[in-house]
Amino acid sequence: MLTATDRDSLINNNLQFAKTLARIKRKSCKIASLEELEAAAYFGLVQAAKSFDPAKSPDFRGFASRRIFGAMSDYLIEISPGTKSKRMKSSLLPDSLEARPEASGKTEVFEVIIAPLPQRTQVILRRAFIHEDTLTQISEVVGLHESRISQIITEARNTLRGIWFDRQHKLWDTIA
Predict the structure, then answer these.
(1) What number is the average pLDDT over the span 71-82?
(2) Helix axis angle, 146-175 relative to 84-92, nearest 10°?
(3) Which CATH architecture has domain 84-175?
(4) Is the predicted pLDDT of residue 104 greater than 80, yes or no?
(5) pLDDT, tens digit (0-9, with 9 covering 90-100), for 134-159
(6) What distance, in Å, lies between the first and last C-alpha atoms of the chain?
């Protein structure tokens, strides 16, 4: 495995590569801005650097390109229109962090993710994503109309996405 210094160097030396892959992806995708795709590409680059083992594969760019394109595809799936329930499910957590009551570690991650949100919003998100309640069931518990519940979930998604992008930009400002 790489040392932290080697990993940081690998990331810094491949920032332009990730940016180029984002531009390539942007040509075939119009639902996300170039900046959004670049943020997802940088995220994929960091993930690739963390898991890269030169003993297994000496070609970092070949290894990283799969992870970078995967991160951009994950982001596009997250923001793409689909069925309402599918959008709601995928809007807050990537599949790898999808919370289930029996997965306490994943539930803890979910709790950390929603911590900055107002208490009522947290209750709604827990009911929707941990308990997997329908909008009707949630509306009975919190006393709001189903359409308002849907709006709150959408607002939470947008807020959390904004927090995520702010953190990504701060990370890259410190690296660059």
Answers:
(1) 75
(2) 40
(3) Orthogonal Bundle (1.10)
(4) no
(5) 999 999 888 999 999 999 998 888 88
(6) 23
Q: What is the pLDDT, as a whole number, of residue 74?
A: 81
Question: Distance between CA 37 and CA 32 in Å, rounded?
Answer: 7
Q: How far apart are CA 123 and CA 16, in angstroms?
A: 42
Dist. CA 45–CA 65, nearest whole Å: 8
What is residue 163's predicted lDDT score, i.e. its pLDDT?
77
Output 34 or 93, whichever has higher pLDDT. Answer: 34
Would you tell me which CATH number, out of the four given (3.40.190.10, 1.10.1740.10, 3.90.1700.10, 3.10.20.90), belongs to the domain 4-79?
1.10.1740.10
Residues of the chain with CATH 1.10.1740.10: 4-79
Token couple for 10 = 């690998």
Give dist(CA 154, CA 162) in Å, integer.
12
* Nearest-angstrom CA–CA distance, 88 and 45: 27
Contact call for residues 64 and 17 (beta carbons, < 8 A) = yes
Q: What average pLDDT does this structure show over 86-108? A: 50
